[in-house]
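RECORD TYPE: protein structure
NAME: Octanoyltransferase
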Amino acid sequence: MALDEALLNWHSQGLIPPVIRFYGWQPAALSIGYFQKVEKEIDMEAVKRLGLGFVRRPTGGRGVLHEHELTYSIIVSEAYPDMPETVTEAYRVLSEGLLKGFQNLGLEAYFSVPDTEDKRADLKKPKSAVCFDAPSWYEMVVEGKKVAGSAQTRQKGVILQHGAILIDLDAEKLLSVFKFQNEEAKERMRVKIPEKAVAINSLRAKPATAEECVVAFKAGFEQALSIELEPYVLTEQQLAEVKALEQKKYANSEWNFRA
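PREDICTED:
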């Protein structure tokens, strides 16, 4: 999270070009949205018992277990040519790369578009703290089920969009780190998750590795956005800046557990 924010800062200062980044989490971690309430929604004893990392994102959205997945982030100026002004339409443009990436993996992915008043109302007031219990506007869906979840923030004239692409899904572990009003509510979510979310490897005859997914989605973004991605290596000074931001913010309880 510190690196995503640092990339945003550097891009806002004109120090680096737009960035598309792919990464994983070591150890596996639970990230929560900017507005979520830890005490109300997260079982921190379970997080610790499972040896998971924990961090609050700079973006909105709900809780994501980063384990059997590929995380991506896009850092690009709001003034980038043909970039829509609205968050929803910018999602659509930036997520075209995800769409192409899933297609490169042989999956018939498409954008979710909530088509009823009830579904649109759910977007404004989610029923749970779990990210993958329902798709939002223009998120990736395969066979009617969410296969990637994304969130966005805009700061200093720059868009940061990042999200999780499900390669596999451990629904029980996911459920275990959230608080529910009662066992009945937890059981409803246990039934609901397989109906609402799906992972890449449950859709393919041959399982995909994270490395294969990087190749597919890198090509997807290049195809969708008509760009050519080039490797970028951080300098020692940049790495030090990221580490300082991590210690000041994302590794700090004041940020992660704020009310």
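COMMENT: Residues 118-126 have pLDDT under 50 and may be disordered.
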